[in-house]
Amino acid sequence: MVSLRNGGFPRWSPGWRAPAAVGSGALPALAFPAPALWWFAYAALVPWMLLLRSAPTGRRAAWEGWLGGAGFILAVHHWLLPSLHVFLLPVAALLGVLWIPWALLVRELLGGRPSAGRAAAALVLVPAGWLLSELARSWQGLGGPWGLLGASQWQVPPALRLASVGGVWLVSLLVVAVNCALVLLLAAPGARIPAVAGVTGCAVLTGVVWLWAERPEVSGRLRVAVVQPGPIPDGPDSAELRFAAGERLTRTLAGQRPDLVVWGESSVGADLAARPDLARRLTALSAQVGAPLLVNVDARGPDRPGIYKSSMLIGPQGPTGDRYDKMRLVPFGEYVPARALLGWATSVGRAADEDRMRGKAPVVMSLPGGLRLGPLVCFESAFPDMSRHLTRDGASLLVAQSATSTFQDSWAPAQHASLAALRAAEDGRPMVHATLTGVSVVHGPSGERIGPALPTSASTAAVYEVPLATGTTPYVRFGDWPVGAALAALTAFCAARGARSLRRPAPEPSSPPARTARG
User: Fold this and answer.
1) Strands, DSSP E only, in 291-444?
2) What is the pLDDT of residues 434-451, one digit of tens each?
């Protein structure tokens, strides 16, 4: 229940604050695909922040920050329910803790009647606090950087230009800053001048970046074919059927003169050293279409223990020797963290029965003509640092091989495909996102869409004219500098608070209670 008091601004009755925190924390999920209401991201945090600023105590704000964070995780990752079932609830509860510092900042800096100085500080520190939670959960052990708020702006050209300067982190900072300014405009009439100045500053920064940031220079084109077999029924022969479907579709490319053919993740279900017949079939395909094939092997090899997911390049003479083993694995999907403690998750969902093995280093592969490509496997396209590393190592083309067939009818395929736009814009390099069952998509070096996406209903092979680019974006050159700036601002704030508390005089000791004699 909401009542209007204190100048007409909303005050939440205690009985409804907890569900309001969960619901308002979930609202930003609407800005991501599939709804893709990107514009909503600039106001999606306002209800949650209004709730937090009205918290009667810091403990209450921390509790509602935790609940809202859990609601956000549940909403953005709800498509994991088929795999994790009820285990998604404790995962959301664990990750929700990361929003407690942000919630305390919101209450302290936006609560009550903030002065102009406090409002100005809030426009810097509240976004920095949000970024701290995003940075913490970006660690692979906590699930990785899926659902970063800035990623909701993947189809907005000015936001993509910002990403080329400061990565997705800079976009997140500006989105939260606009939300913070809206809260000040709605709830703090005395702070409207810094609020308007904050929104104006965000707009000016975006305009300056749009006009002056380096743009990738197109240096040529590459014809890249994406092979998407489509859904294959689960069964003991599903790997063979998927391989045969990819083989059939690849043959249709003969005569279309592709320079590279890309298959999706787990497109080959047996190690090529153990199955030389599959290696011969892939070699014949490469010769027939006149281009190397980038396939993905998901199998146990005869020469090393465990199962790896490996990107391999196959040419007309057979495997070229270029091989990349996936380094960052999907928690629960490809390994179970602390399996001795959490292994029971395999009994309630589709968690991995056996942990996949990790690769040791990124690999840049060479194509005929000297062009170099940087492969990523599925989940790895969510990590900005991985594609940046490949670009710094000389990759002219980024390729992500993916499979989201487990989540075919959910928001997951569209969410995953949208990440290619951000990685392309950050690094100034085109990116191909090739999947088994959709959504497959190609983005140019500024993050722009190249050709049509292949939807989850498609079983086809498509050729794209991919623009290549030279030059180095500020993000590739300087890295995650917005993260460093945010951490520096928070550190300065904490240091100032600590110094102020030390200068505060200690309270006078109270007099001891008088003793009364009893006769």
Assistant:
1) 293-300, 307-315, 318-325, 365-366, 372-377, 397-402, 431-435, 441-443
2) 999 989 999 999 999 999
